[in-house]
Amino acid sequence: MSVDVHQHLWTPAFVDALRRRTAAPRLDGWTLHLDGEPPYEVDPRDHDPARRVTPGLDLALVSLSSPLGVEHLPAAEAWPIIDAYHDDALALPGLFRVWAATSVTEPDPARLARDLDRGPAGLQLPATAVQDPAGLAAVAPLLDVLTDRDLPLFVHPGPAAHRRGDPSWWPALVPYVQQMHAAWYAFQTYGRPRHPHLRVCFALLAGLAPLHSERLINRGGEGRGQVDRQTYVETSSYGPRAIDAIVRELGVDVVVNGSDLPYATAPPTGLGDAADHAIHTTNPLRLLGPHVSTTAATI
Fold it and tell me: Is the pTM of this model over 0.70?
């Protein structure tokens, strides 16, 4: 069995909800408009579920795209988009499971509990909501809901402003990485003591934050060599050199496969068959827990 914990799939109801908006984030046809970014032409073929069915992939976890900023909208604006996404995504065929989304401007643990009880595999939050003590304190009741249900958290880059003249790759290489770096250290410092039993996964190898442990020690930090077995990183947008470096720092048991489709493809690990099996199968199923693992075994 092979698992991909990081894909994005815009469902028809989600697309319609974005088209009904008159302010960013919004869609005009298939042209995406975001605050501070140039218009972006979305290819509808990228969000065709049938195109995601590929040989060797048994389970894909999909989510809405946190860089759109939906979770950061006023709650009255965010919920119609989130509800539309959940309604369609939860009806996708057996290959797919769903990361739930929620408002971070007005966290509502009761509403999250109802949404999770519909069947999502866990909750995705933008890194912009958990990159400092205040953000983590605000979403703490949501993380308690996850812990109560033995479901994981997936931390994904959030909105990033685009400056005039920046190359197209700038958000992915600078603010996204900075967000993940901050979220990694904020969670280790402020989140883990508050949520000792929560499984959490950081997208894009947490922006390579774990590789800064030597600098952490040199600046008075602690913990190098003490791997948190409930904190995972996924591999999207990196490749064998970065994955190898992370494995040397954290060990292979907390690294999981992610592609970031349709924006990237799953990278090769270059670490051999045993490591590939751990990263593509054993580790993601352990991250997702018994609720998803049992279902996955029947796919």
Answer: yes
